[in-house]
Amino acid sequence: MQAKSKNKFSLIALALLFLAPVIVAIVMNSNLIDYSPESFKNNGDFIQPPIKITDNEQLKSYEEFWTVVYNHTGKCDDDCLKMLDTLYRIRLTKGHKMKQVKLLVLHPDDSIIDIPEQYTSIEVQTYSRSDELSTTLKQLSEKTFNNEDGLYLLAPEGFLMMSYPVDFEPRDVIKDLGLLLRARKNNG
After folding, report:
1. Which of 101, 120, 139, 187 is most solvent-facing, going by the fewest CB within 10 Å?
2. Has this prediction a pTM greater than 0.85?
3. What is the DSSP letter of 152?
4. Is 185 exposed, middle or buried (0-12, 13-18, 19+ CB in 10 A)?
5. Cα 83 to Cα 70: distance, rounded to the nearest angstrom
6. Angle at Cα 94 formed by Cα 92 and Cα 100, nearest 5°?
7. Which residues on adjacent β-strands are paired with residue 153?
8. In the beta sheet, which residues pair with residue 104?
């Protein structure tokens, strides 16, 4: 290979070396390729816009924590008990970070939910069916469990920000909580 050809090849290779990352970045940010790493995808559905529910005085104590909220209307039968067990186990998977996660069962004041003794970390709050919270939860339920029940994530700022469908997998909530706890740690 002659020196002149070798210089041209070196110049082209050098240009490609510096331009390739720029081209890849432009393509990834465009709508040409829909790529998002699995580790950064949320599994629940974002509630748009997030809904602040801690204006209700009973729910003020849930600010500053990530809270898994289970809204249940009616009697706590086998499905409800299974959900309570699932919630309890979801919190346990967070290990030393589980102190940053609360579990909450919301239910109308005309229904009764008895939490079995083994689920000491699950808290219960009631609301009136004439409350604004009741209307909000009923509307959200149409996109989740569709029977006025639902499973949600409550952000430390007091906003319901994510919901899960009736056929959710516990690992979906676990992954989302893990991402959110890491993001909160990294942001201060």
Report:
1. 187
2. no
3. E
4. exposed
5. 8
6. 100
7. 68, 162
8. 69, 123
- Phi/psi at 36 (nearest 5 deg)? -145, 125
Residue pLDDT, tens place only, 49-89: 998 988 878 889 899 899 999 999 888 888 889 999 999 99
CA distances to 84, 136, 179 from 88, rounded to whole Å, are: 6, 25, 19
Neighbours of 132 (CB within 10 A): 12
175 token code pair? 């992954």
Length of the chain in residues, anyone? 188
**What is the per-residue pLDDT across 148-161, written as a single tens digit (0 to 9) for each?**
889 999 999 999 99
pLDDT-based confidence at residue 145 (cuts at 50, 70, 90):
confident
Cβ-count burial of 38 within 10 angstroms (0-12 exposed, 13-18 middle, 19+ buried)? exposed
**Which amino acid is residue 120, in one-letter code?**
T
CA distance 109 to 39: 40
